[in-house]
Specification:
The complex is a heterodimer of chains A (118) and B (109).
Chain A lengths: L4 E3 L2 E4 L5 E6 L6 E8 L3 E9 L2 E5 L6 E5 L5 E5 L8 E8 L13 E2 L3 E5 L1
Parallel strand pairs in A: 2-11
Antiparallel strand pairs in A: 1-3, 3-8, 4-5, 4-9, 5-6, 7-8, 9-10, 9-11
Chain B lengths: L3 E4 L2 E5 L4 E7 L7 E6 L6 E6 L5 E4 L2 E6 L4 E6 L8 E8 L3 E3 L3 E6 L1
Parallel strand pairs in B: 2-11
Antiparallel strand pairs in B: 1-3, 3-8, 4-5, 4-9, 6-7, 7-8, 9-10, 9-11
Chain lengths: 118, 109
């Protein structure tokens, strides 16, 4: 079974631009979560989608948004990029949403998209 | 405000030794505590997880010990191998999942 795929793997953008990152979950998984990973702040939760609905959101500004499509693929968008948005953006998929029990909640991470803002 | 505190930040262990990483949490509503392993250039991978109604869970060389009253849990890696050299993250799940800052583990050959 193919794992979680993220595209692109690397991205360089200029401050003020916007960016869209894509995540394809494991086949059959309906939940997708996004995380930002930086050396200083570590792994921080951005948002979670299940069945095309945002179920949860982390403490990030409104410039960060996402969506999920009917095939469970997800995109996240960052508008008006700032230097501090440079990070590894990780997507994780699971069978069920947060608060699921057992195997339904085990999250599988993709390799991430390395975003550099200059 | 960080709700999951992980220590140490880095750890060096001799091959064959026991690696121990500790985490403490504040929110008693957390109901699921996973540990992740991350190699450079890769996303985190689930290693082992525990629920608060269990005090210990073992999978191969990896054991989670959980102390609900102290709000602490730890990962023990027995017979540590050079291939275990990676960054380890503890996490706790409530309405959302909170990660520790990570421990960079290096196993000396």
């Amino acid at each position: 079974k193919a794992g979680v795929t993220q595209t692109p793997r690397y991205l360089i953008k200029t401050r003020g631009q916007q960016v869209t990152l894509s995540c394809s979950p494991i086949s059959g998984h309906r939940s997708v979560s996004w995380y930002q990973q930086t050396p200083g702040q570590g792994l921080q939760f951005l948002f979670e989608y299940f069945s095309e609905t945002q179920r949860n959101k982390g403490n990030f500004p409104g410039r960060f948004s996402g969506r999920q499509f009917s095939n469970s693929r997800s995109e996240m968008n960052v508008s008006t990029l700032e230097l501090g948005d440079s990070a590894l953006y990780l997507c994780a998929s699971s069978l069920g949403p947060s608060r699921s029990l057992g195997l339904n909640y085990e999250q599988y991470f993709g390799p991430g998209t390395r975003l550099t803002v200059t | 405000q960080q709700q999951v505190k992980q220590s140490p930040q880095s750890l060096i262990v001799q091959k064959g030794g026991i690696s121990i990483i500790n985490c403490a949490y504040e929110n008693t509503a957390f109901d699921y505590f996973p540990w992740y392993q991350q190699f450079p250039g890769k996303g985190p991978a689930l290693l082992i997880a525990i629920r608060p109604d269990v005090s210990e869970k073992k999978e191969g060389r990896f054991t989670i010990s959980f102390n609900k009253s102290a709000k602490q849990f730890s990962l023990h890696i027995m017979d540590s191998q050079p291939g275990d050299s990676a960054t380890y993250f503890c996490a706790a799940r409530g309405d959302k999942i909170i990660f520790g800052k990570g421990t960079r583990l290096h196993i000396l050959p």
